[in-house]
């Protein structure tokens, strides 16, 4: 498709240099098209088309109607009058995007190497684009000239009552609304219409009012977060340092480094209260798995109008929240990654809790990081942003070291509670008895669990692997059974009687013989949460055990129900994957066990050690949060690994001092910037040929300071029948990489069906 066909402002200006009369709208699309297209605004739509709206316009030689976003309106444009096309339809009123969001998405497009239209489309939720939960209704309006002289009309009492009702109404009323409020039929309405005293218009209306969400799972006698608590001296000091920024209108970024249980959330709440008192609003980002009833309850009990945005909302609910936020009805927006785009018009503060979490990174185009987008939005809107974590990302820590962020510290737990004691269990010495299968729980772990339960405590067990067995192996030929569509070992799920691919969710019947050599004595090995649950139930038959992973938390409300039961002490042992490692605060948990701390330690990713440290340190923080002391046991086959030994000592600074030199040696972040390019397609040879060719283009255009590594097979080489090869671009700073991408990507042109993905600042290299 030629850019000229749709009226591209840049190309047509260069070719024709004709200043055509307008007005004209600049439109971008959710396609990899890196330009703004000019469209004429016809007379019937003049005054209706506004910047930030979606419009329907014809695109290409076939004039296919397509939805785009208006990014500018100008009285004239350099276009060929014979080629320019008209805007067909306006889809939104009022506009969905304001000026700040236009500027933010323009920056995202440039930084994350996508089109402006792709960035804009990521900002607006699907439910808003579909206008979910709304309907077209016939509404009644009173013309201004009638409204001003309505007292001069002599009307039957019912008609006069209806006219007065419409004049005093706040908002728009439908015919049904008027009949209900005036307790009348449509006859007096029709009479008023015939006399020209009221008119009808067709407008899109909500099917349900925006109401303050409630949480029926919250027990009434739970006072957590109901009112401000007495601040510790550290919390007071932190708020004193935040005070000037909270009271002003200037950009500043703060890193709140606080150990687990130090009261970071109370600092957030107190800071937000100061902002709300000024008539401003706040956005709070948390990882999806931290959107627990406990977290939500703390915000709702401190603020009257809170919107919670998460993945389980229906499209209609999300649309209602969006409208409420945009109209200023919400004080605090709490949500996961995409909540950073909430249309708060009087934003005064952004908070990102657990800022180190990889879930803040979007894994589809545009591949933005919500933390970095938040900092950019705060800069554009001239307001403070707080990044909080007990285990900050090393990039964030380095930014504080360099003076870009202001570091604030909470080094002690609330009420001077001690950090839990952490013991490392060397699983190399925990050998099973001869002829017995390996157990998930070692002897020391079992004894510690028994002691904690006998002492009326609760236990949390972390194992970041789902399923019963994590692999199926042929002992004769060594073949590991893999998914037919992915280069991934199948996981045996005993309860579902299936072998499951955790990458594409393909299911296979458990085989009875090796597909390679037909050996009929397959070995099922590895331990997942399903197998751990059975072992725990057998070891502690008199205690209630619940498992939390994506297999058991499928039904709506399941997560909240299990946590409520655990809080009420109806559950004694809670085990699961990383979803139980963060955001939970239960005072009666006296033992936390990490069943296998090595699950991510040896992955081919430069962040593997950092992630392992963060996971162990975070789950260790789930205990000792009440009056009773806590204990942590960490089972590992690598007890001397720095990530594990430093986490056992609650020594973040020690880990940073050990890990940063390793990063610096290899020019990895925070001592360099990385861009990852991934090519994927159904024929391996074609993918390799394309990426080899494009690598040559990159080398020819790259600045001498840019290092290119690869192409090479991705660690997971095949997903959903598509072969994956990748290469890395590294440089000391971002500008050379951005310049290279701007020059090279227009030349990429991968042959169909090969796709090229660009991941700027990747958080995973798998």
Automatic annotation (TrEMBL):
Residues 245-410 form the Helicase ATP-binding domain. Binds 2 zinc ions per subunit. Zn(2+) 2 binds at residues 483, 486, 501, 504. Keywords: ATP-binding, DNA replication, DNA-binding, Helicase, Hydrolase, Isomerase, Metal-binding, Nucleotide-binding, Primosome, Zinc. SUPFAM superfamilies: P-loop containing nucleoside triphosphate hydrolases. GO terms for biological process: DNA recombination; DNA replication initiation; DNA replication, synthesis of primer; double-strand break repair. SMART domains: DEXDc, HELICc. It catalyses: Couples ATP hydrolysis with the unwinding of duplex DNA by translocating in the 3'-5' direction; ATP + H2O = ADP + phosphate + H(+). Zn(2+) 1 binds at residues 474, 477, 514, 517. InterPro entries: DEAD/DEAH_box_helicase_dom (IPR011545), Helicase_ATP-bd (IPR014001), Helicase_C-like (IPR001650), P-loop_NTPase (IPR027417), PriA (IPR005259), PriA_3primeBD (IPR041222), PriA_3primeBD_sf (IPR042115), PriA_C (IPR041236). It comes from the Bacteria. Its cofactor is Zn(2+). GO terms for cellular component: primosome complex. It holds the Pfam family DEAD. It is an enzyme of class 5 (isomerase). Its EC number is 5.6.2.4. GO terms for molecular function: 3'-5' DNA helicase activity; ATP binding; ATP hydrolysis activity; DNA binding; zinc ion binding. Initiates the restart of stalled replication forks, which reloads the replicative helicase on sites other than the origin of replication. Recognizes and binds to abandoned replication forks and remodels them to uncover a helicase loading site. Promotes assembly of the primosome at these replication forks. Belongs to the helicase family. PriA subfamily. Component of the replication restart primosome. This is Replication restart protein PriA. The gene is priA.
